[in-house]
Write a structure and sequence with these properties.
By secondary structure, the chain is of the alpha/beta class. The protein is built from 17 helices and 16 strands. It has a domain of about 150 residues. Keywords: Hydrolase. InterPro entries: AB_hydrolase_fold, OHBut_olig_hydro_put.
Length: about 575
């Protein structure tokens, strides 16, 4: 094992990707990334190459707007063929029960004159390629190596039905036959377990360390790739950290832990960052949203909001039932559905929700993301295994709408296709319901009580959330935070704005762009009616990374302030460069 990476578990895998394969798109190119899922010749036994190609395609589609109106590849961004090598391993933080993946992509055209390593963490709970559309798309064509970590999340789902998980190469393997991405402590159980929720580690509190380990792994792999140029160190190789969503929070955590000055610059997009005493924790506002937003979005002001009404333009019946439930519980005083919706809206306004955030959050509400996030995160914070999740929740394979056993093809696809937190890909979230007209409220109220209550579980959950607090970065670290003004999943009022205010109060001078018309999911912009109202955030992230590069390698001064571009919403047509305001 190479000196300086004693955190690596087992062997380092190396693979070459050239000719009809590459690092950025696995040979698909932009058109292939946009197309149908990359096929498996034998769905029950896909090859390692097929799994990798589809994992990269899935990660691109989950992050970037590749739709016909979105402008990717014409107005901004590109997907050139980038041949090179990949180095991959499992790594562990001290005391952790489960590993996180680290992977380094080294392009053949690595720029020896401008030695650059981009380090990133997956967005959401995605697998190892979960930030490729940001970090890889910007860094690889520029001649930078890119180091990734899944930050203790990922789609290496463990299936108790056949006692199998995912090996380093993405293939399914039975416990005991290979080192697995995630191997539950319990040797017996039922259903599906996954690393983010069931590792026993509260991985979110370690995201910063995961990023710093990935950076160290990146330097070590550059030593292997170019031994004649070694050693690669933070003194002769500029390390730029970037990520979005949970990945953005991870690089901000890393910035506060960077005692050895590994990082030369940080660009965080729409970060899930926790600043106690100033902001709100994700678990707090996610459980609040799960309870209250269905009713609040019934208000007439959201009548034309995408996702806030059903396909026929009528209010969602389940949301009307939520208003009635909140009224029956005494949480709403008004008597009529219209008044109840207005009262729920005013309640959320009083806790910091803006109209912009609520409107865009209609998508997350319609897709049931709040409940899904809260159930998984509660299990992570309380360090529960799959058989003992809070509030009666559990995950299992869905067969004809009921818990069942997966076939081989379904299992084989999980690593490439899964987003890291079910439901999806044949896995469902079960439990937490009752027989009432509003069946999901019982579980949601239980999840909310873990935040508002003061029993042993509530105190344990608060302790885990307290451990997520970002620490102060060093004063001379160039930092840029970008966040969509319309973000309805991680609203700026709860995340970026309190973090930036805290940095300013502590004498730091980060750049901050609150980008008009941008929201959380660029990938959602391809949905009819939704993209009309918004702009993608990725082009602004690429621009920020360009400025960091110019500062580090071309001696351009780091600006004290930089006005946020005044973009305009895309409308029903194709995105135009002028709309971005840059």
């Amino acid at each position: 094992m190479q000196q300086g990476i004693d955190f690596v578990q087992g062997e380092v895998s190396v693979a070459t990707h050239r000719d009809h394969d590459d690092l950025l798109s696995a040979g698909l190119g932009l058109d292939g990334l946009k197309g149908a899922p990359s096929p498996f010749a034998n769905p029950a036994k896909p090859t390692v190459q097929e799994l990798r190609q589809r994992a990269i395609q899935t990660s691109w589609k989950g992050i970037a707007d590749l739709g016909p109106l979105g402008g990717y590849g014409t107005i901004y961004g590109a997907v050139p063929a980038v041949p090179g090598r990949e180095y991959q391993a499992f790594a562990k933080n001290p005391g952790a029960h489960q590993p996180h993946r680290v992977l380094v992509q080294v392009p053949d055209h690595f720029d020896q004159a401008h030695r650059c390593l981009v380090v990133t963490a997956s967005s959401g709970s995605r697998g190892i390629y979960g930030a490729i559309a940001l970090a890889g798309a910007w860094g690889l064509p520029k001649g930078c190596a890119v180091a990734y970590t899944d930050k203790g999340t990922g789609s290496g789902y463990f299936d108790y039905a056949d006692n199998s998980g995912v090996a380093l190469n993405g293939e399914r393997a039975v416990r005991g036959t290979a080192m697995l991405e995630f191997e539950p402590a319990a040797s017996k159980g039922e259903g599906i377990a996954f690393k983010h929720a069931h590792s026993g580690d509260n991985p979110e509190a370690e995201w910063g360390q995961h990023v710093l380990q990935a950076a160290q792994f990146g330097l070590a792999m550059l030593d292997r790739a170019f031994p004649e140029q070694a050693p690669f160190t933070p003194q002769n190789t500029k390390i730029i950290a970037t990520g979005l969503s949970n990945g953005g929070g991870a690089v901000l955590q890393a910035a506060g832990l960077d005692e050895h000055h590994l990082l030369a610059g940080v660009v965080a997009l729409e970060p899930n960052v926790h600043t106690p005493q100033r902001g709100r924790a994700l678990y707090d506002y996610a459980t609040e949203a799960a309870m209250w937003l269905p009713c609040a979005l019934m208000d007439a002001r959201f009548a034309s909001t995408p996702f806030a009404r059903d396909a026929k333009g009528a209010p969602h019946a389940a949301w009307a039932a939520r208003c009635a439930s909140l009224h029956a519980q005494g949480l709403l005083k008004a008597a009529t559905p219209e008044q109840q919706a207005a009262e729920a809206y005013e309640h959320l306004r009083s806790t910091g929700w803006t109209d912009q955030a609520m409107a865009t959050a209609a998508s997350s509400t319609a897709l049931d993301l709040w409940r899904v996030i809260a159930a998984a995160y509660a299990s992570a914070y309380l360090r529960r295994d799959a058989d003992n999740m809070p509030c009666g929740y559990h995950y299992n394979v869905v067969v004809n709408g009921k818990p069942g056993v997966a076939d081989e093809a379904t299992r084989a696809s999980w690593w490439a296709d899964g987003a890291g937190i079910p439901p999806g890909n044949g896995i469902g979230l079960f439990g937490g319901t009752d027989e009432s007209a509003d069946p999901q409220l019982a579980g949601i109220a239980c999840l909310r009580a873990l935040w508002t209550g003061d029993d042993a579980d509530g105190r344990a959950l608060h302790a885990s959330v307290h451990a997520l607090a970002a620490k102060l970065p060093r004063k001379d670290l160039p930092m840029w935070v970008l966040h969509g003004a319309d973000d309805g999943l991680l609203p700026t009022a709860f995340t970026s704005e309190p973090y930036i205010a805290w940095l300013h109060a502590e004498g730091r001078r980060p750049l901050y762009w609150k980008v008009p018309h941008a929201q959380h999911f660029d990938a959602f912009l391809a949905l009819p009616g939704f993209g009309d109202k918004h702009l993608p955030l990725l082009p602004y992230g690429y621009t920020a990374l360009d400025r960091v590069w110019a500062h580090l390698f071309q001696a351009q001064p780091w600006p004290e302030d930089l006005p946020t571009p005044a973009g305009t919403a895309r409308g029903a047509g194709v995105l135009q460069a002028s709309m971005l305001g840059m």
